[in-house]
Amino acid sequence: MIGKTARPLVIALVAVLTAPAAAQSPPGPSPKSPAAPAPPPGQTFPPGAEVLSVEGEPLGVLAQVEIRPGGERILHIRRPDGSMTTAPAIMASRGERAVVLEWTREEFESAATTASASATASPVSPTPPVI
Question: Is 22 inside any structural domain?
Fold first, then answer.
């Protein structure tokens, strides 16, 4: 038989041995969250896909999808004349055979002209300003 002084020690030992494993080990590192949000299912835009206007007119071919630091996705579109232009992915959807922009041809041309003018007017500095 166990003595009176050993009994509390045995009870504590039994409690520790029968406790759930999660309660005995310290919590592990928390999983890291991704830097950019994942694109919604069904809204992937494959490079090489044809890009159409909302009316079904061909606008070009998708060259690449850029993911900016805030998670914004930008479509880089190679136009039939070989020039490149961009459009926000939020303005596009994926059809059965092509990427469809929610813009008419005129809106697409206007956006391309505006993007081109702003790129030449204010070039982006590769390094941040010193404060």
Answer: no
